[in-house]
Structures are given as C-alpha cells and as structure tokens.
Amino acid sequence: LPWGRGDKGYRNIAETDIIEVLADVDGQFKTDPKRQYLYGFSMGAAGTLRFAQLDIDRWTAVGAYSGSLRNPTPEEVAKFKDTPVWLTWGALETRLVNANAELIKMFEEAGVEVKATQVEGVGHRYLGEYQKDLLDWLLTKSK
Predict the structure, then answer these.
(1) Tens digits of per-residue pLDDT, 46-105?
(2) How far apart are CA 67 and CA 52, in angstroms?
(3) Is 22 exposed, middle or buried (0-12, 13-18, 19+ CB in 10 A)?
(4) Are 142 and 35 in contact (CB under 8 A)?
(5) Would you give the DSSP letter of residue 126?
C-alpha cells in the first residue's frame, strides 16, 4: 500500500492508505516531529499539495515537482501560511507554466514562504540536479 489501490490522484482511498501508512510508521519508529517533509512528482506533486492540507501542522516543508493545484481556493492556499513550499517544473511543461504562476501569486498574497523554479529545457522528467536541489532545500527546513 498505497500502490495497489489504483490511480486515485492521491485522493479518497489513496489518502486513507497514506494516512494508515503514516500511523504505522509513527507507531513503529521515533521520528523527529520538527523535520517531517512531504514531496511528490507529477500527479504525486499535485497529491502532495492536496494531502498536505489534511494535516498541515505535521509538515515542516512541502516540495512539489511537476505538479500544481488545480483551481485552488484562497482558503486552501492560506493553509500553507506556516509551511514553506517549493514548486519546481520544467519550462517545456506548458500546462504547468501558467498554473504555477497563478499558484505562486496566490501563495505570495497569502504570505506563504514559496520558492519557485522553472527549469529551462526540461519537460516532464523526474531525474536531474533540480530534483536534488529541491530535496536538499527540504532538509534546510526545521520547525
């Protein structure tokens, strides 16, 4: 789990699966509550931004690569006020260029600490220095 539950856009039953996995991890391991990060790519990045809102106080920082929120409301965006967000996408991902420009504007208006990187010459591709940079950025954050 959650892989075997089908493609649900990391919503509904997929959210339940992730919540159950987190509860299992919390029950078996001691983790640092000041250093809890959430990161996703593509549909998982959109899912990350949605899922983070369910328990926003848990997350130290959120990273989303090649994803965005579709039709976000000001209330959804405001939930990130105390949680830094880094959005990264490839310049060749034309559907994300405008969506993330609007999301960044909404984050800034809500007072969210947002970092944004458009990677020139890159499309919907997972591996690269930009991925490492985003993950390294997460590790600089602590509550």
Answers:
(1) 989 999 999 999 999 999 999 999 899 999 999 999 999 999 999 999 889 899 999 999
(2) 14
(3) middle
(4) yes
(5) -
CA distance 136 to 121: 22
pTM: 0.87
E-strand stretches of the chain: 37-41, 61-65, 85-90, 114-119
What is the Cα Rg of the chain in Å? 15
Nearest C-alpha neighbor of 112 from the set 141, 139, 86, 138? 86
**Cβ–Cβ < 8 Å for 42, 124:** yes
How far is residue 95's CA from residue 49's CA, in Å, rounded to a whole number? 17
